[in-house]
From TrEMBL:
The chain crosses the membrane at residues 23-47, 59-80, 100-121, 142-164, 194-216. Gene3D superfamilies: Rhodopsin 7-helix transmembrane proteins. This is Olfactory receptor 1468-like. GO terms for cellular component: membrane. Belongs to the G-protein coupled receptor 1 family.
Length: 237
């Protein structure tokens, strides 16, 4: 019963047999991954070493690059291996680890974009208060908030999914995802659905709504200003 309801492996069923084409596909995907790594490492090193770039906006950009390395590692390591494999079984622990990494990556991306939007909003709409509001201490707090909340909220979702008794092990994707695992449950998933909605709202929809709100406010401010001011704001944003 233990093995039936808590399968030790999951089967990623979206992979198809492409025969000898798997090798050029692997090379292309590997080159894409290498480009992602090299581009983001260059951005991180340039910002870290150039003191003139030690400004809030560039610090946030560096955070995005670090997050890109984190998220791409969570996907590509397993994906490249599966491209060359005849079977696409992933251990239970590895599957839930991948879910956590990919979901926190996506959440970090949106929360960081949210604090970047706040930075631009203060810079454009409240320029006289910018240096008083966006201090080094505030930047540290914003980055900590953008990282800590998704880490804990996603962890709750993954934990709730990991304790569900499952009536199958097939995931119709190229990677492990939370909702397909929850749908395999043999028991009602009301709590999982509720927590999932709350986490999605707070880490996806609220940051996106805030970004939209700040850019609407910036647009309204720019509408009344000179063409030169508009071009500077557009370049900055």
């Amino acid at each position: 019963m233990e093995n039936n309801t808590y399968p030790p492996y999951f089967n990623l069923t979206m992979f198809v047999n492409i025969g000898s084409y798997r090798y050029p596909t692997f090379v292309l995907c590997f080159l894409l991954y290498a480009f992602i790594i090299s581009a983001n490492v260059v951005i991180i090193l340039v910002i870290a070493q150039e003191k003139t770039l030690h400004e809030p906006m560039y610090i946030f950009i560096m955070c995005l690059s670090i997050n890109s390395l984190y998220g791409s590692a969570g996907f590509f390591f397993r994906f490249l291996r599966d491209l060359l494999s005849d079977t696409h079984l992933i251990p239970r622990s590895a599957c839930f680890t991948q879910i956590y990494v990919i979901y926190t990556y996506a959440s970090y991306e949106l929360t960081i974009l949210g604090i970047m939007a706040y930075d631009r909003y203060v810079a454009v709409c409240q320029p006289l208060h910018y240096h008083n509001k966006i201090t080094s201490k505030m930047v540290s707090k914003l980055i900590a908030l953008a990282g800590i909340y998704p880490a804990f909220s996603v962890a709750v979702c993954v934990y709730l999914a990991s304790i569900l008794p499952l009536c199958g092990n097939k995931i119709p994707k190229l990677f492990c995802a939370n909702w397909p695992v929850v749908k395999l449950s043999c028991v009602p998933t009301v709590l999982n659905n509720l927590i999932g909605m709350l986490v999605s709202t707070s880490t996806v929809f609220l940051p996106l709504a805030f970004v939209l709100y700040t850019y609407v406010r910036i647009f309204l401010v720019c509408r009344k200003r000179s063409l030169e001011f508009k071009s500077k704001v557009i370049q900055s944003c």
